[in-house]
Design brief:
The chain folds into 2 domains: about 5-125, Rossmann fold (3-Layer(aba) Sandwich); about 130-230, Arc Repressor Mutant, subunit A (Orthogonal Bundle), CATH 1.10.10. It is about 45% helix and about 20% strand. It is built from 8 helices and 12 strands. The strands form 3 sheets. The chain has a 5-stranded parallel β-sheet with strand order 2-1-3-4-5, with helices on both faces. It is elongated and about 55 Å long.
Length: about 230
């Protein structure tokens, strides 16, 4: 049975989330603040965090950042009442897997939770594929180990950056539309949020390119999207 940690300071919302998740067959824990969320993540080792942004003390963004810095890769679904795109993109930059804007229906929440768990299962299948490494030039990536190296140096990639790089390399020399990348990496349509892709591409270039302003690997195809250039061994 999958374990879900709900991090929400509003009692009524936390109770509603807990009820619907338990009805769907999940084991649910509840934390009311950021510090407790981190402690419970380490103690209970949940399979998913539902993380509200507005929390007393340490907010949701800081919780997400702290967990990722500690190399804890538990999937995180951010819950936000704000419609500001900056918050959404920042959360994804910090390592969150998805976000859901309040108000939302229980059906939408459960669908999003199931989508995240499906993605994890698919990633597990990918890890069992016979391809042990992908290499082009000085860039090397190990899909099953979730590790990437540039010139022999381990790259500090967020989970989404790693997924995006792996997808680009597996589709090298193909022009990939932003919408295609959104659907492939985030598993559903971020209508109007193509900036999410641009931000992650920018961060990837900073980490894998010698000169991010003159990229060798990830090229922009104006009016379409991006293309990864390089023969993959």
């Amino acid at each position: 049975m999958k374990k879900v940690l709900v991090v929400e300071d509003e009692q009524s919302i936390a109770t509603l989330l807990q009820y619907n998740l338990e009805q769907a067959g999940y084991t649910v824990y509840v934390a009311r603040d950021g510090n407790t969320a981190i402690s419970m993540t380490l103690l209970e080792k949940p399979d998913l965090l539902l993380l509200d942004i507005m929390l007393p003390g340490m907010d949701g963004m800081e919780v997400c950042k702290t967990l990722r810095q500690e190399k804890i890769h538990t999937p995180i679904l951010i819950l936000t009442a704000r419609g500001d795109e900056f918050d959404k993109v920042l959360g994804l930059e910090l390592g969150a897997d998805d976000y859901l804007t309040k108000p939302f229906s229980p059906r939408e929440l459960l669908a999003r939770v199931k989508a995240i768990f499906r993605r994890i299962e698919l990633q597990g299948s990918v890890a069992e594929e016979p391809t042990s490494e992908l290499r082009t030039g000085s860039l090397l990536i190990y899909p099953e180990r979730i590790e990437a190296f540039q010139n022999g140096k381990l790259l500090d990639l967020t989970p989404k950056e790693f997924e995006l790089l792996l997808y680009l390399m597996r589709h090298s020399e193909k022009v990939l539309h932003r919408e295609q990348l959104l659907n492939a990496i985030w598993k559903y349509d971020y209508t109007g949020d193509s900036r999410v892709v641009d931000v992650h591409i920018s961060h990837l270039r900073e980490k894998i390119e010698c000169d991010a302003k003159r990229p060798v690997y990830i090229k922009t195809v104006r009016g379409f999207g991006y293309k990864f250039e390089g023969s993959i061994d």
